[in-house]
Amino acid sequence: MSKRIHSYQPRVGHGLPHDPIASILGPRPIGWISSRDADGRLNLAPYSFFNIFNYRPPIVAFSSVCEKDSVRNCRAVGEFVYNLATRELAEQMNLTSAAVAPDVDEFSLAGLTPAASKVISVPRVNESPVALECRVCEVFQLEGADTALIDTWMVLAEVVAVHIDESLLRDGIYDTAAARPILRGGGAADYFEITPQARFAMRRP
Amino acid sequence: MSKRIHSYQPRVGHGLPHDPIASILGPRPIGWISSRDADGRLNLAPYSFFNIFNYRPPIVAFSSVCEKDSVRNCRAVGEFVYNLATRELAEQMNLTSAAVAPDVDEFSLAGLTPAASKVISVPRVNESPVALECRVCEVFQLEGADTALIDTWMVLAEVVAVHIDESLLRDGIYDTAAARPILRGGGAADYFEITPQARFAMRRP
């Protein structure tokens, strides 16, 4: 670091025009989560507080600031689908981020087609080239280092079925960049796309 | 999705030359985690099972397949530092991923300089342009959807102090791409770099 460092404590204040934390911890993978409530009403929404946390079995996690429909559905039904958000589907993904009433089906809102899953009861987004059917392991509320509860819920789930458009497999190897995944940056509008040119190789020593 | 879909259930087998899951859920942000044990021995290692999960206060999480030194240190000391892994520091970050004995200090191994933190007792990487001092909230073992415990530990922590090289602030706004962060893809060697050209803007509807 150079000698000119901006330092702050988040609980005191960042002292900048915008909170930089989501721009620092970015860009982030997007969990485009389809779910349904107990009555079968569908929900679809993007979460960039999302990642994989174990390989075998694959465990993914997302969190929702405030207990949004996706979290309530995960609690009620115990299932969701991760759909890959690609550059081609970016505008439609963005439409599903609108704050709408629980009875609004974001599949319809964004002109997307629900397709039946194989193992679980929640449909995937047919237009997306990759879908992961997930069974919820745990839903819990986050807490700060002072143990005070935070109004944010975390969902951990196991991937129980995987669907990949075969156009993304090269000799059976999944080609990350070929899918043109999009990632969420900070600020109100920042996204990043992944292209083959962005790739470089480093082998573990 | 086209009509040619490769589908599988992870617990049964992926039926491909390589497990595609880490390539699908990628590229991923890297938590380059410095920690220390109770005797003050330093550790530094990259984790791509990492992300932010809450804004205010900022909560980050990483997981470690097998209970590695970083997790043991987080449990013993309750603190760690997130350091930003940039394109410039990629080779050094890669050196810190070597599987070495607990008494090996990866700062020395990679020729990096520990710099004192402000709030916690664990040093940051001086060469990295961003550091987040973190206090551990929870350390727990993951479980599958069948509730069986998995040999992977998850660490949740609150960011209690932030340090940003001022060269990354434009009119006080943090410029994600200017830092040239690197992300982890799948396979043995895949990384991606983020450049300003990769950015696009979409406002929430």
Defining traits:
mainly beta, homodimer, three-stranded antiparallel β-sheet, 205 residues, seven-stranded antiparallel β-sheet, 16 strands, 4 helices, 11% helix
Strand percent estimate of chain A: 35-45%
The proportion of residues forming helix of chain A, as a percent range, comes to 10-25%
Q: Which two chains touch over the largest interface?
A: A-B, 111 and 110 residues
What separation lies between the terminal Cα atoms of chain A?
Answer: 26 Å
Query: What's the mean pLDDT score of chain A?
Result: 96
In spatial order, strands of the major sheet of chain A run 4-3-7-10-11-6-5
Instruction: Name the helix and strand elements of chain A from N-terminus to C-terminus, one letter apiece.
Output: EHEEEEEHEHHEEEEEEEEE
Rg of chain A is 18 Å
Counting copies of identical and different chains, the oligomeric state is homodimer
3D shape of chain A: globular
Low-confidence stretches of chain A: none
Structural class of chain A: mainly beta
Q: Could you give a short account of the major beta sheet of chain A?
A: 7 strands, antiparallel
Count every helix of chain A, treating DSSP H or I runs of 4 or more residues as helices: 4
The number of distinct β-strands of chain A equals: 16
